[in-house]
Design a protein that fits this description.
Number of domains: 1
Largest sheet: none
Radius of gyration: 13 Å
Shape: globular
Structural class: mainly alpha
Number of helices: 5
Strand content: under 5%
Number of strands: 0
Distance between the termini: 36 Å
Oligomer: single chain
Length: about 110
């Protein structure tokens, strides 16, 4: 699948397209979390947009995530979300923006 290709430049668009086709996006969340923990800042940016557009409830749980943190710090913060995932998964799935236009939130910045 295109989303699993490290060279994919539009993971949020891929997820939005899959969602518009009615596919369950939950199996793709680990791929997005891997992007957020990547050593490449560009890959983390793409991961953030994918998370914010396809999994906005999960993005809110990473309020302390900063794209400019070290990759180790990003991995630590993403691990918190991975650890919370089994409990968070119950009774709610990924939500799609109503207009399917993509990420509407800005990625977190350095404070």
């Amino acid at each position: 699948m295109m989303l699993r290709d490290p060279g994919c430049l539009i993971p949020n668009a891929v997820l939005l397209e899959l969602g518009s086709r009615g596919q369950d996006l939950q199996p793709e969340l680990p791929v997005v979390l891997d992007m957020l923990a990547a050593s490449s800042r560009d890959r983390r940016i793409r991961g953030w947009h994918a998370l914010a557009s396809a999994f906005p409830d999960r993005a809110k749980l990473l309020s302390d995530y900063r794209l400019d943190d070290t990759s180790e710090e990003c991995q630590r913060k993403v691990q918190k979300l991975r650890s919370a995932e089994p409990g968070a998964q119950q009774n709610r799935g990924p939500t799609m923006p109503a207009d399917n236009s993509g990420a509407t939130e800005r990625p977190p910045s350095v404070s």
